[in-house]
Every structure is written in structure tokens, then in C-alpha cells.
Amino acid sequence: MANAAAKTQIRGPSRPKGQETAARVREAALKRFAASGYAAVSMREIAADVGVRPGALYNHFLTKQDILKDLMLSHMADLLEAWDSCDLGSDMDPLERFVRFHIRYHLEKADEVFISYMELRNLEPENFDVVEAERRRYEAILTEILLEGAAAGRYAVAEPKVATRAIIAMLTGIPSWYRAGGRLSKQDIEELYLELARKAVAPDAPPSLTGDRMT
């Protein structure tokens, strides 16, 4: 019993340290993948950035592929959690709420966004399916917004899922080119892209009187 208690005391503090090391591995891999691309980064380089021997990484991630999958799933989990706790006004138009949330969140997570979209091609099929399922959960939020808005006459959407992917792709592209200190502020970008999203699903306007006379 004494030996068991001693082992428990020895193992107890090791778990937080292990979690801390795993977090440092994720952070190092995130920076490396974003800067050089997944294929060009080695486990040895990640280990060097963390300050451990390469073999120590395998206590946390068996392969580089496991790290990539973990980064992508963590990104999606954080994104969905952030949406659930979004503090934008509930009385705001749902499409506006989604657009503003998406832009603000993704501009703060440029590296995570880059990896989550550009490195999908490097996921093994089984891992791709798992990550893609989480991406579809997020897309379903906007699809539901569009369906409900169309039913209420606020939006006109022939293919809600296609519109969803088009809008998300448009919004997600912002971190790849936006730079702070440029001519347009984050607020400017937000307003411009909100207008684009609204126009993409705006109900058809009735013909003007002028237009009727011309025809």
C-alpha cells in the first residue's frame, strides 16, 4: 500500500507537465505548418522548437499526421464553442450575426485558419472524414440561417448548401490578404463583406416602373 501511495504521489504532478508539453508541441507545429507547410516540416524540427528530444514527441503524438488532425479538430471545436457563446446581440439579423462573428473570429486565428483550409489535402482519408464532419456542423449553422430567412422572406436562396459554402469561402479568405495598418480597417472589411453577403442572398427586387416602360 505504501508503495502504491508513493507511486501515486510521483505520478500526480506529471500529468499537468505532460499536458503543458503537448500544448507546446501544438503551438510549435502550428507555427511551423503555417510558415512552411505541413509536408516540409519534420518531427525533429518540431521537437527542436519545443526543446525536447524527437522521441519525446511520441509520448503525445505518434505521428505528424496526428498533430495535424489534432490542430484541425481543436480549431473546429474552438470555433463551434465560440459561436455558442457569441456575445453579438440576439436581436441582430441572423446572417449579419454570423458574418460578423466569422470575420472577427477568423481574423484573430489566421494561422489556424490557414492550416485548417490549406492542409486539408494532407489529411489521410480517415482523418479527413473526421475533420470534414466537424466542418459540416459549422456549415449547418449558416444553412439553417438561410433556410429560416428564406422561409420568412428575408433571403432568396435557391441552393442553401451551395450559398453557405460560397459565403463561408468568401469570408474565410480575408485573413489570407488582410493586413493591419492598411487603407481599410477591420471594421471597414466587416461592413464591406456584410454587404456582399447580404446581396448574395437578397430577395429579387420587383421591376421598377421605368424598367416596365422600357420593355
UniProtKB/TrEMBL annotation:
<protein>
    <submittedName>
        <fullName>TetR/AcrR family transcriptional regulator</fullName>
    </submittedName>
</protein>
<dbReference type="InterPro" id="IPR036271">
    <property type="entry name" value="Tet_transcr_reg_TetR-rel_C_sf"/>
</dbReference>
<dbReference type="InterPro" id="IPR001647">
    <property type="entry name" value="HTH_TetR"/>
</dbReference>
<dbReference type="Pfam" id="PF00440">
    <property type="entry name" value="TetR_N"/>
</dbReference>
<dbReference type="Pfam" id="PF17932">
    <property type="entry name" value="TetR_C_24"/>
</dbReference>
<feature type="DNA-binding region" description="H-T-H motif">
    <location>
        <begin position="42"/>
        <end position="61"/>
    </location>
</feature>
<dbReference type="InterPro" id="IPR041490">
    <property type="entry name" value="KstR2_TetR_C"/>
</dbReference>
<keyword id="KW-0805">Transcription regulation</keyword>
<dbReference type="InterPro" id="IPR009057">
    <property type="entry name" value="Homeodomain-like_sf"/>
</dbReference>
<feature type="region of interest" description="Disordered">
    <location>
        <begin position="1"/>
        <end position="21"/>
    </location>
</feature>
<keyword id="KW-0238">DNA-binding</keyword>
<feature type="domain" description="HTH tetR-type">
    <location>
        <begin position="19"/>
        <end position="79"/>
    </location>
</feature>
<keyword id="KW-0804">Transcription</keyword>
<dbReference type="InterPro" id="IPR050109">
    <property type="entry name" value="HTH-type_TetR-like_transc_reg"/>
</dbReference>
